[in-house]
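Customer ticket, subject: "Can you confirm the structure for L-methionine gamma-lyase?"

Message body: Hello, I'm evaluating your service for our small team and ran a test protein. I'd like someone to confirm that this is what the system normally returns, since I don't have a reference to compare against.
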Amino acid sequence: MTARRNRPQGFSTRAIHLGYDPAEHDGALTPPIYMTSTFAFETAEAGSEMFRGERAGYIYGRTRNPTQTILEERMASLEGGEAAMTAGSGMAAISSVMLTILNPGDEVIVDHTIYGNTFAYFTQALTRFGVIVHLADFTRPETVAELVGENTRAVFFETPANPNLRVIDIAEIARIAGRAGAVVIVDNTFATPALQRPLEFGADVVVHSATKYLGGHGDLLGGIVVGTADMIKQVRTTGLRWMTGATLSPFNCFLLLRGLKTLELRLERHSASAMAVARLLEDHGKVASISYPGLESFPQFDLARRQMSAPGGLIAFELDGGMDMGMAFMNKLSLVTRAVSLGDTETLIQHPASMTHATYGTEERARHGIGDGLLRLSVGLENVDDILDDLDQALNAL
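Agent reply: Thanks for trying us out. I re-ran your input and got the following:
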């Protein structure tokens, strides 16, 4: 059998090997952690050239570090971008991009259903500095088209969206925004490049809370930005180096490199277990509604299948009896952990209206599909029968 030597390397192969040769590091199989804040210059002239951008090299840890470089090269490849940049958190990644590309008077169009702190950042923080923020229902692209104008600098959305898993047509939004030359920014935290690559559908920039699935173990905070080499250079110089200083530590880069090695395998397991959980919830008489991209009852099932290779590990659902019943249900769980965040090995459940999305007002939540009784479940890597047993006993105990 002839070896297929000309085909591109697979996702997990790149996640494990790209950008690192053990032979160049005394044979160390795992990339070393460069725990240094500054770097020595071979000569004074070399240092001056680096500061002027005329020579490649490392200057100071706030801008770049060799451990970060390996992670950035791997994330750029996995997302299909030219370059990537790490940041101290997902919010730092978003802020670094926005503070780079926006000026007073610029307009941004944002999907109305996003992570609560991101929503507050756009509607309460950026507006203080003269940025005009418009909210739209991105599942209805015509509402975005109505708002796009000559001052539109960027559009921002999540897909699937936090917390109710609405799926947005990336290609259609990119087409609409492209008419105005707006930068299309997609938060790909829920899907990760293992399941969805927004740049392939026309997005310009991808951001992540690397805290979630990319890390995968609930032991770090981090953010990622992926885009063109020119965009990443701008964001690193302006948004990261000057505006936020939100550098990701070399140790957290090391932990993220570890997480990437199992990302594809973990997402396969998260998705398969979530599918089984979704079937249980859909068939249970005490569940009033469920939102999961893998179910045929999901309103955007066909779009989700076109954009995502698997439906992911997150489920949103509401019980008969609303918020009070949801709280009672959460308190009856024993294996499933009551905690915010997602993408960990542990199965986590939380109540968005009182937790991650409390920054939305009551009327805003109602308008944007975040019901007071909505629960968000992040299905972990425990044996799926144990997850199912815990959920079933809690439902039957109500």
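A couple of notes from the result: The longest helix spans residues 263-283. The longest strand covers residues 152-158. Feel free to reply with more questions.
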